[in-house]
Amino acid sequence: MYVHKRQGIGFASALCFLLTGLAGVVDAGGSAEAGNEKAAMCIACHGKDGLSRRPDVPHIAGQSEIYMSAQLRRFRSGERVHPEMNVIAMSLSDEDIDNLVAWYSSIQVEVKLPQ
Known about the structure:
Layout: H1 2-23, H2 32-38, H3 43-46, H4 65-77, H5 83-90, H6 94-106
Helix pairs in contact: 2-6, 4-5, 4-6
């Protein structure tokens, strides 16, 4: 049983590593320029730079294209439920989503660890 658990953890770790690695090379094909224009609808909650000023709203700057694309599509379909995001995402076409993803994923975020 212990070996099985370790194999499961190994598989999960390998899968996360693979998906993380793919996130940097997958291109949704969107236009960051068009996404920048479309992002006007996102500013109030997520900020123009993708860094939320509200504690209840996530930062989306530099987020993985795979993750953002999937989440916006889940909000649009109703699979993922959030009152504001469901309404906003319903108005987005696939092209809008690809463009927003291109914009927000292209923002570079610098992280500084505490000393």
